[in-house]
Protein: ATP-binding cassette domain-containing protein
Amino acid sequence: MPAPIISFREAAKIFPGRKGAEVRAVDGVTLDIRAGEIFGVIGYSGAGKSTLVRLVNALERTTGGAVVVDGTDLTGLSEARLRPVRAGIGMIFQQFNLLSSRTVAGNVAYPLEVAGWPRARRRERVRELLDFVGIADKADVYPAKLSGGQKQRVGIARALATNPKILLADEATSALDPETTHDVLALLQRVNRELGITVVVITHEMDVVRSVCDRVAVMEHGKVVELGDAYQVFSAPRQDVTRRFVSTALKDRPSPAVIARLRARHTGRIVTVGVDDVSGSSAHVTHVLREHGVDGTIVYGGITEVAERPYGSLTLEIVADGAAGDDPRVEAAVAGLRAVTDVVDHGTARDPLDDAAPSGGPTGLLEGNDL
Structure:
């Protein structure tokens, strides 16, 4: 197990509020971020996630507990002693924060100038970075002439200029369209895999976590309420706030209105079954249907990737030799499916059911593909 490069130990950040009330933006957080991983911190607005990441480079100072970065406890360090720590941390932002009066090359060179790099070495490093992020042809262009995706690539190149060990990405894709978001996330994966840089992604978008993160912490009211492997958090969320986030990223489960349409179109038993990479449920579903002599036709659903592993659900119409949905073989098949995976039984048009949703996500919150 890689050693932690960032450790929070009962870390707290309290701001004064109106009329003397305190705002506990970060409230006793304890967690480790491992060297070399892509770690996601997700939460709704006001959850404390951006404040948490600002504790890492001491842009905000803790009011309790400790933050240790690459072996250095930041508690009480002077600005002078913080400089070498911050030199090992790059940061990219939602609004890019580029210098409008400088060209692309000038923006990337700026931290190198501050660090005292000689001109020739700066020029070579800038050329190398712009090539890495895919905008070498934009070196002499000013930010006003760039698209949002190009601006974020400049921001990433600038953040990498001084060879940091850690890259903090605070809502780095929130201002981008979906296609550009995909490209920027792919670039962050390259940064992580090819350069070995630990990436901490702060986001309110579960799709970002699904696409790139190894592990994720879910924050609410300044606390970490759920922490784990990204696949585990998606496939078996424990907290209501996590389930709400998962529902925004997985488009695989039918809403009540869709269920009503499916019952009207199909005479058989309608069930939704979970598909994941842990239980091998896809193969088990096929085996169960064959074992009980029934047919299962996919009428809705979708499979996506979470942390590069398949996850989702399929909604099936189950029939036995064209018989009605209440055939004993269908009943036995549904019971067999429950033994191998999560199942939501929607019944039939003649006998509709309102089954409880499985652990993978609440029925009615997720939209998918109606077949």
